[in-house]
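1st attempt posting a full record on here, be nice pls
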Amino acid sequence: MLNRANAHMRLPSTDRRRIGQPLRKRMLASRWFYLMMLPGIAYYIIFCYLPMGGLMIAFQDYNLFKGVWHSPWVGFKHFQTVFAYPDFPVILKNTLIISVYRILFNMIPDVMLALVLNEIRLKWFKKIVQTITYGPHFLSWVIVYGLVYAFLAPGSGIASGWVRDLWGMELNLLVDKDWFRTLLITSDLWKNVGFGAIIYLAALASINTELYEAAVVDGAGRWRQMWHITLPGIRNVFVLLLILRIGHILDAGFEQIYIFLNSRVYQVGDIIDTWVFRRGLEQLDYSVAAAVGFFKSVIGLVLVFGANKLAKKMGGNGLW
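the predicted structure (as tokens):
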């Protein structure tokens, strides 16, 4: 009680007066902040919480004409259909492998680029590098695939033509199972590495500069400063983003893969989302698609809680 009283006395006089006010008056005093929150709250209510009611069709033989309220209930029938599907283990394996590749080979380059940009002292050169690396993020995956196709298309691609003219080899990376995942990760890295570094640059900007000054006085060089000050300063941000990515480990990037996918690479590139798209929208089997979505949500929730608990045990802050 004494500590709470001391903490209360350390607050500014205006804050102490607000704490003693009724809730209605405090909300009225902060009305503009609540007003600014409304668009974000409305977004999550409309697009995140209201659609949860549609999960009921995962337990129904959903009929588009009968609707949610009149379709017959079938329990876990559709979940059994999903898990009994012969290719489901392969699809799940592809999803996990591609997601893990994205985490391993996309997060580390984001940090490395942020560290490099943070060390650049020439402002004009730093702006040029930032512009070049940020630019691809704003291109759609259709345009990115068009660029990739222009370089790697069998016979007519720029890079394919060079390889054929120099070594007499035919380059068919777009339809090569051994190179498909590498192509996915490489193009995703090129597109998003610059934008992903922005968060780490913001974290680097928040590090107290006095720590670097003290390190210089103690004789620490650039590498020592980076190891003992810079990296610990962005550790919490890295853990936070890692937990969020682990929660989406069953997503694997539908938009990119759906555009890059072709019949020759289904064995290594077909993921849960592309299969759900074909089953749910092309075959109009909405109940199976909803069952897979429910399954992914549960797994993502469990992984987020597990990763958050593990992060706290390892000394991090976690999400909550």
